[in-house]
Amino acid sequence: MRTPFVAGNWKMNLLADTAKALAVKVKEKLDGVSGVEVAVCPPFVFLKDVVEAVRGSRIQVGGQNVYTKDSGAFTGEVSAPMLKSVGCTLVIIGHSERRHILGETDAFINEKMKAALKAGLKPILCVGELLAERDAGKTEEVVRRQVVEGLKGLTAADMATVTIAYEPVWAIGTGRTATPQQAQEVHAIIRGLIRQQFGAAVADGLRIQYGGSVKADNAKALMSQPDVDGALVGGASLEVRSFADIIKNSI
Ligand code: PGA
Questions:
Q1: Is 37 exposed, middle or buried (CB count within 10 Å of its CB: 0-12, 13-18, 19+)?
Q2: I need a surface site. Which of 31, 34, 114, 194 has the fewest CB within 10 A?
Q3: Is 95 a catalytic residue?
């Protein structure tokens, strides 16, 4: 049985005071909830405050991005050892906004996965097709490429700490969620790929989150699918009540 894993991706939202206040509320409301792993991923500048606010609780804190190198002349970038040093345990990699707005490639994302793993951070690898790709019948091809290229060179041992998030781009921030069946179909494809590449034990243990307009009222139907093991939540994670309701509906 896989423990569900729900992570809040705060994206580029909130300010120092509101980020801290949200973290305090997440801790108060969710520390006692069992049977699910919970994480929040604030913008870099709020990480230390958020780590401080949830200290001593079960809430994990992660970055939304990471650079491929550990240190050096890379102005504006943040490395995996840096994230680790402020108390992060995980990091989101390859989010569709980074792929499509900031031009990240599968090869670059693969380097980031390796950098995160080397530093002992648990990566959440995001994959998902654009609407045009779905309409052209290319969903499987796109997701397959993103999974295979993103995980290139990783070992079965590495995979024990990896989570994959399937986030169809057309469902992110649009209010248009994939149906539970659409999500399940792609999640099953991803698990099948992992089985081929890394074996049954890794595939059976892998958590595959769904992301894209997850809300309290659609979470239960999505999470009840056999291959949906949690959620990566954007908009609804900015308000403690909706985030908490999603988490309760995921257990
Ligand atoms: P959304 O974002 O829940 O606001 O659609 C999800 C994500 O991009 O991780």
A1: buried
A2: 34
A3: yes
